[in-house]
Structure formats: structure tokens, C-alpha cells
Design goal:
This protein has a two-stranded antiparallel ribbon. The longest helix is centred in the middle third of the chain and has 17 residues. The protein has seven helices and two strands. By secondary structure, the chain is mainly alpha-helical.
């Protein structure tokens, strides 16, 4: 007998939660839904409306949670960095640290030059 989870290429929100809990013990389904409502993640939906999280969605979610946990970044800053390519979806930094480490505004956000990319 095969496990239904292994037959499909995506995970449900509950399965994603179980996967992330070890690294992020404070994450909840509500938090994942909130991140979606803020436009940080965009999982596909089934015909009946259930979320379908593929590997790229899960990796992006990990990046967002890690940036919050390790760097204490607000969601707006994380979204801007993901959108600008300062943080790529595979978890790496897209540009050398000097290009984004310099040119910071007094509040720690990238200066206008970094954000214009």
C-alpha cells in the first residue's frame, strides 16, 4: 500500500506545518495563512480551495521565517528584498554583501539605489 502523500508533488498546509515545526517551533497554520494574506507566499489552490505547497513554496516560506527569526526583519523588508532579488528563493544572497550591505538607510533598509533594481 502506498502513502497518499508520496503520490502527489505537493503538501497540504498541515503537512508543511509539520515539516517546519522542528526548525521554527513557533510557526502555526495561522502564521502561514497570514504570510499568504500579506503576499509573501502564493501557493496554488486545488479546485476545492485547498492550498498546494510545492518545494519552491516551502523553500520561500523557510527563507521568510529564517529572515524573521535570525535577522529580525519586518515582513515589508523581507518582501522588498525577495522582490528586488537581494534574497533569492533558494535561500542565498543574490548579490555580494557589499552591494547590499552598503547603501543602507538609517533604519537599516536598503537605500534607494539598492531598491531600484
Amino acid at each position: 500500500m502506498t502513502n497518499g502523500i508520496n503520490e502527489r508533488p505537493y503538501l497540504s498546509i498541515g503537512e508543511v506545518l509539520a515539516l517546519l515545526l522542528e526548525e521554527f517551533p513557533d510557526v502555526t497554520i495561522s502564521k502561514i495563512r497570514f504570510l499568504e494574506s500579506q503576499g509573501l507566499i502564493e501557493p496554488e489552490r486545488t479546485a476545492s480551495g485547498y492550498r498546494k505547497f510545492f518545494d519552491a513554496d516551502i523553500e520561500r516560506l523557510r527563507i521568510i521565517l529564517r529572515e524573521q527569526k535570525e535577522n529580525f526583519l519586518p515582513l515589508r523588508v523581507i518582501r522588498d528584498r525577495l522582490d528586488s532579488g537581494a534574497i533569492d528563493d533558494s535561500g542565498g544572497i543574490a548579490a555580494p554583501a557589499g552591494r547590499h550591505g552598503e547603501g543602507r538607510a538609517s533604519d537599516g533598509r536598503p537605500s534607494g539605489e539598492c531598491r531600484r533594481r
